[in-house]
Write a structure and sequence with these properties.
Layout (H helix, E strand, L loop, with lengths): L2 H9 L2 H9 L13 E3 L17 E3 L228
Parallel strand pairs: 1-2
């Protein structure tokens, strides 16, 4: 079938398209690359395992759609409603999803490298094991999202709202999380080597065994955090808040805590031999 024939079938409605898809023994081989669709209600449509590379969607409703394994790389879905859609294992590199609604979407194991997700809504989305290296998520809303084992190396997460997000064992090395909200988040065993966390709110978060070597935590809020066994060698924690944090067994060698608030911090078993505490507020039992 030609692209125009596919388009005609799509424009007949979701039921017509999905019924036709069910009659096809092979889900692959459908080429809709660079197709342009506008102003359509395609909620629940089955676009799984097809080629939509370079496609352009404008004012299209894709709520609950199946895009599992679909190639959407280098396409544009700016502002599109993809809430509750299944994009697991989809190829989404270099796609524009800025301002898109991806709330509760399944993006597990999706390839989003170099993508534009600025100001996107990703609350409670599943991004576990996804590839987001060098993508932009600045200003994104990601409350309660799951990013376990995801790769976010060198990703732009400035001013993002990620409260309650699960970043366990994720790679956030050299990522920029400055001015973002990570309150009550889980970052157990997370790689934050060289990450920028200036003015970031990490209060009450779990960073047990997190790798923060060389991270910039200037003025960050880590009050009440669990940092047991964290590796913070060479990190910049100047003027940061650690009130009531647990830094027991943490490696703080060559870390700088100048003017930091460390009241009620637990340093039991921590390595502080070469740590800088100039003008810091220290715990009463220090």
């Amino acid at each position: 079938m030609t692209t125009n024939k596919y388009r005609e079938l799509i424009e007949q409605g979701v039921d017509s398209w999905n019924n036709w898809r069910e009659s096809q023994p092979d889900l692959r081989g459908i080429d809709l690359s660079e197709i342009q669709l506008e102003g359509l209600n395609l909620a629940g449509i089955d676009f799984s395992m097809i080629n939509l590379r370079g496609a352009r969607f404008h004012d299209v409703n894709l709520v609950g759609a199946s895009l599992r394994g679909t190639d959407l790389s280098m396409g544009s879905m700016r502002g599109v409603d993809l809430s509750k859609a299944n994009l697991s294992s989809a190829h989404l590199s270099m796609i524009c999803l800025s301002e898109a609604n991806l709330m509760q979407a399944n993006l597990s194991a999706a390839d989003l490298r170099g993508s534009n997700l600025r100001l996107a809504k990703l609350d409670y989305a599943d991004l576990s094991r996804s590839k987001l290296n060098m993508s932009s998520l600045s200003g994104a809303h990601m409350i309660g999202a799951i990013l376990r084992g995801a790769n976010l190396s060198r990703t732009d997460l400035k001013e993002a709202n990620m409260a309650g997000t699960d970043f366990s064992r994720a790679n956030l090395s050299e990522a920029d999380l400055s001015h973002s909200d990570l309150n009550v988040s889980t970052l157990v065993g997370t790689d934050l080597i060289g990450a920028t966390l200036v003015d970031t709110d990490l209060s009450e978060s779990n960073l047990c065994r997190a790798n923060l070597i060389g991270a910039n935590l200037f003025r960050a809020n880590l009050s009440g955090c669990d940092l047991i066994g964290a590796d913070m060698r060479g990190s910049n924690c100047s003027e940061a808040y650690f009130i009531g944090a647990d830094l027991s067994r943490a490696d703080l060698s060559r870390a700088e805590f100048t003017k930091a608030n460390l009241s009620k911090v637990n340093f039991t078993g921590a390595n502080i031999e070469t740590t800088e505490f100039q003008d810091a507020i220290m715990p009463d039992t220090w």
